[in-house]
Amino acid sequence: MNANIVLNPGVKQKDPSRALVIAVSSHAMFELGGELKLHLQKVKQEPEPKSTVKDNEPFREGIAFPFIKAVQQVNKKLLEKNANEMLLFDVILFSNDVSPASQSRVVNSALHYDLEIGRFCFCSDKDFAASLQSNHVKLFLSTDTDEVGKALKEGFPAALLYQQRGQGTTDTLRVLFSGDVLGFSDDMAHFLREQGFSEPQLQSISTAKGAMKEFATVIGEMRRRFGREGSPLCTCLVTVWTPRDACAGALKMLRGWGLEVDEAFCLAGAPQSPILAQIQPHILYDHGLHNARNVPAQC
């Protein structure tokens, strides 16, 4: 494996055997594409000596900013309860850009915004899976369904970051689980085929279900650190496509894993968009079912 790991000197390193390690794509944390395009246009229009190019200018905030701020709030509240708490979120930033200039700019951007990112992992696509494993990652997050699918195919839990309205919610971390994924079975597969789901989609849902248990178990343990009211961590279950009994089965499965969700919604085919707008989740653990292709437009 050929990956470059950079430690954040401003963040206390956590014990990966106890912390909940979450890897976030750099493309979700920062607006890399837009900044790079503007930079290239500027260089093309006004050529500058290489030494004067502002490579250390911070990237713009990305979709993951409300998530990282909410994570920092959860860690803060956990440490207020117990200064020796080991069960904390440990965020790693993953980037496939291995150029030294880009690495430096990503790290400096995180430092500029005072983000609680413990480590930065710069690796090529072929070292992606090995890097996730060596860093004890429990969940990979991205705004790119292809990146999420790639992690799932490698056997790692992965989910989408939901694009929140405005500045987003930062005082409470909201995690949404899909009852359609958790309740997936041979009977449910037949039902979803009738709804227009393809075989690759069904295989992806099955893979996502298998990868969900460890993350849900740790989230459940962390959630129990707080009371029912005023918790900085909120978990939700939403079942959209499958029948209502799938929602009950999903709730039972989560309870068996030690997670009592704060809210549950069984929509039975009703539009999901109003619920997502109300919940404003940071983590959307549904493997893209809210945006599934080739199915009736119900979300």
Kindly list the characteristics that best describe this protein.
single chain; about 300 residues; alpha/beta; 10-stranded mixed β-sheet; 11 helices; about 20% strand; disordered C terminus
Can you give me a brief rundown of this structure?
With 299 residues, this protein is of the alpha/beta class. It is built from eleven helices and ten strands. It has a ten-stranded mixed sheet with strand order 1-4-3-2-5-6-10-7-8-9, sandwiched between helices.
Describe the structure.
The chain is an alpha/beta fold. It has eleven helices and ten strands. It has helices at residues 26-29, 32-45, 65-81, 100-112, 128-134, 145-153, 179-182, 186-194, 199-223, 244-256, 273-279; strands at residues 3-7, 20-25, 89-95, 117-123, 139-142, 158-161, 173-178, 233-239, 263-266, 283-285. Residues 35-53 and 288-299 have low confidence and may be disordered.
Poorly predicted sequence stretches spanning 5 or more consecutive residues: 35-53, 288-299
Ends distance: 41 Å
The gross shape turns out to be: globular
SS summary, helix count: 11
Q: Strand fraction band?
A: 15-25%
Main sheet strand line-up: 1-4-3-2-5-6-10-7-8-9
Largest sheet: 10 strands, mixed
Helix content: 40-55%
Task: Summarize the topology.
Layout: E1 3-7, E2 20-25, H1 26-29, H2 32-45, H3 65-81, E3 89-95, H4 100-112, E4 117-123, H5 128-134, E5 139-142, H6 145-153, E6 158-161, E7 173-178, H7 179-182, H8 186-194, H9 199-223, E8 233-239, H10 244-256, E9 263-266, H11 273-279, E10 283-285
Parallel strand pairs: 2-3, 2-5, 3-4, 5-6, 7-8, 7-10, 8-9
Antiparallel strand pairs: 1-4, 6-10
